[in-house]
Model the fold of this input.
Amino acid sequence: MKKYLLLLCFNLLVLFSNSARADLTIEIVGGAANQIPIAVAPFQAQDHKTNSNTISAIVEADLNRCGLFKTLDTRGINTIPHSPAEINFSDWTAIQAQTLTIGMVEPISGNRLRVTFRLFDVLRQTQLLGMEFNISQAQQRVTAHKIADMIYEKLIGEPGDFATKIAYVAKTSNKYLLQVADADGFAVQTIVTSQEPLISPSWSPDGTKLAYVSFEKKKPVIYVQSLLTGQRSILANFKGNNSAPAWSPDGSKIAIVLTYSANSQIYVINVDGSGLKKLSSNNAIETEPAWSADGNLLYFTSNRGGAPQIYSMPVSGGEAKRVTFEGGYNVSPHISSNGKLLTYIKQVPEGFRVAVMDLQNGLGQVLGNNSEDESPSFSPNGRMILYASKIRGKGTLAAVSTDGKIKQTFTDTGVDIREPSWGPRVN
Amino acid sequence: MNKKLIISAVLLSLLAACSSNTVKDKPAAPAPVTESAPAPAPAAENAADTSSAKSSDVAYNPLKDPNNILSKRTIYFDFDKDEVKAEYRDLVAAHGKYVAEHAGAKVTLQGGADNRGSREYNLSLGQRRSVSVKKAMNLNGAPDARIETISYGEEKAHDCKDETCFQQDRRVDIVYDND
Done:
């Protein structure tokens, strides 16, 4: 034990940096049956065909990646319009565009930018959206994601998730990094660096904090850390293991798993560390709590029936109900924000695969086709599921639409990526 | 394509070596477990041998005698199981008895799991395994106050692809304080 105490000293370094490095890029397979043809004209003063970091290029990549749009090649258009008066609608009907986005990026005083964008219905020749942003240079990427969200919402009829963030753990040869990135894998920030394992990041519903498990004290301990200031505190460091934090939808509580001297059991604790309350009490493994959308139920993994299955129980106390019945190993529940879908990991003959269940009729569907899927979480609008998988032996992130039709794989520069969690939509 | 065939062939031969059709829930063959298991700190044993050879007044330490069952510190488990198998009962009983009889002895039981499935579930499974070993030690008189149960789950697991490798990670290590 002394050996451990010596090793324990200063082996953790908390970083908070804005340096974007090792961006994840995304490969897309498949798409919706009826993709909406959309032309994203390069915004004036920005040529996105030669620079993938321009606002219009990011908007186009977002729309393309989600699988619901068919982004059209605009290189054949002689005069790219930037204002309504410059649009020649016959140019756009000629390339089968149903919708068209145009815009401008103009420098204004104080080293700021004015970004204007408009969305048109090409067939009706009418403007569907128009918006102007006054932004700093550093806000170009988030502004592009917001524009893509507005286009998505106008044309699909539900909010977009392009301006949201994801958290995950990257493992290099000798370090574990808790990182946060934009939903497209860019703008990576390292939140925590440790020589001991980091697992199970969970977002606060306002998107300003992460709860996570760190082994820096040679055992699992739960921390809460602000993404705005980098400041962190211990949420739970009880005897035994402290793990599996899950933030309640109203932001006031965190469901956690403690062992003391026995098996894993589920507890709820206030965000300030007060009011610890035990919810499960038995001789089985009870872990991986996940809140229902209304905050009244906790879904969790238990082997009380002999093998791990997903159950639910009222947070106020009461009997647990079994939720998964098919197969001998169903774990890692997460519930969509509309409360209708459950995603989980199911063991099938080929390995462990991400699956989704309609909670109204109890019908499950396996979505992945890899063999080592882990840690699924829904996008805020519930249309996509982000999860960890292994491709050619290396940990990577992947996403799949809840209907299984659109599959995305994130690739990166040589590090092992695991434990993803999709952050909330924040206005 | 050729590469795939070669890999498949290698995997097949590995599976054949395990004489098992499925990876899941395969009861571990006793002999391979002992053989493939990493030796419990051979360097420390050698060091202990050397010192006892040099000076005869160093007290005999049964924990460091490679011929004593107490020098064995690792218990292996089946997939998704936490029962201490028959072949490890003598080992666990010996440690339980040692802790019971030596008031200064304190142990930490570090549970582990192979890298398949959920990390959080595996953390709980490793904990359940260490609790299972603790209970067996309690039966031999070792008090809870001198046994701590923790788990690393799959966080210390090797990057395994076959059962021979997986079974090394489904374990509890008995670690003596000040050892």
About this structure: The helical segments of chain B are 2-18, 30-36, 42-54, 86-101, 119-139, 163-169.
